[in-house]
Design brief:
The protein is α+β, with helices and mostly antiparallel strands. Helices cover about 25% and strands about 30% of the residues.
């Protein structure tokens, strides 16, 4: 009898009812609904569709045991084995002005990195703008990505994918990793998902109360402290095909990466692929 691709004993299913009980609290929770799907193309695509159709409330959490066409930045797609990670999207209706919404994916990165460090016991870092890394023996591996999509003038769908039990022979690229490969003290996805969503709720609440001001709610300092891109010589591959090489010196109040060229000119970068060319000074 051929084993089912769902029968891996090292990858038990998520417990939807337990997650709802832990995360959904009337009146004092950001999260208003949670659904676990067995398989779907993309949780972001589905939640955007539901939002436009009026089928989703703000605070909805949509989780998939398997994504067959997960969405990344710049229209990239990716897949992973069933139950090997956490693939989820949430619907937000931000109160701060739209010009502050660029901080939402950075906020999610701070939340995820902190939650993973606490629950899985791994060293984490953030690569600007949307990658979550594990750091072990000086080696950085990407274990997660974040994507925020503006649905309309009032709504944002925030998606996150985190590699939990991906094995070495399952990695999509050599620079990828997983919590298991980083030596995590636990890979039970239920407590990890609860921790990440609670951390997102906490940081989102602080940011909202501060009117989206990243300095007033300490988000800017937290992001800068966890961002391994800062202090590095980097190449920014910008929209339109241009490249910019220099030192990543800061993240500004708008969430942009500030790169200083060899001539000392500082360039704020709002979007682009970042390649780390050399380690930060002192590494």
């Amino acid at each position: 009898m051929t084993p089912s691709r769902w029968s891996d004993l090292d990858r038990p299913p998520l417990n939807e009812s337990a997650l709802r009980k832990a995360l959904l609290h009337k009146g004092n929770s950001l999260w208003t609904g949670l659904e676990v799907l067995q398989t779907i193309g993309s949780t972001n695509t589905e939640l955007v569709r539901r939002t436009r159709a009026g089928e989703a409330r703000p605070g909805t959490v949509l989780v998939a045991e398997e994504q067959t066409a997960g969405k990344g930045r710049l229209d990239r797609s990716w897949t992973a084995p069933p139950r090997s990670g956490l693939f989820f999207s949430v619907l937000l209706r931000p109160e701060p002005p739209a010009e502050r919404w660029g901080w939402i994916p950075l906020l999610a990165g701070v939340a995820a990195a902190g939650a993973l460090a606490r629950t899985a016991g791994v060293d984490t870092g953030l690569k600007w703008p949307n990658d979550v890394l594990t750091v072990r023996d000086g080696e950085e591996r990407k274990i997660g990505g974040i994507l925020a999509e503006r649905v309309d003038e009032r709504s944002v769908v925030l998606g996150m994918g985190l590699n939990v039990t991906l094995r070495r022979d399952e990695l999509p690229v050599p620079t990828a990793g997983s919590l298991a490969l980083a030596g995590a003290q636990g890979t039970d996805r239920d407590p990890i998902l609860r921790a990440v969503l609670r951390a997102v709720e906490d940081w989102y609440g602080r940011w909202s109360e501060a009117g989206g001001d990243p300095s007033a709610c300490a988000l800017l300092d937290a992001y800068a402290a966890g961002c391994v891109t800062l202090g590095r010589t980097v190449r920014a591959m910008l929209p339109g095909g241009d490249d910019l090489v220099g030192e990543a010196v800061a993240v500004d109040g708008d969430g942009r990466l500030v790169i200083a060229s060899e001539q000392g000119v500082q360039h704020p970068v709002a979007a682009g692929d970042i390649v780390h060319l050399r380690p930060a000074t002192g590494e």
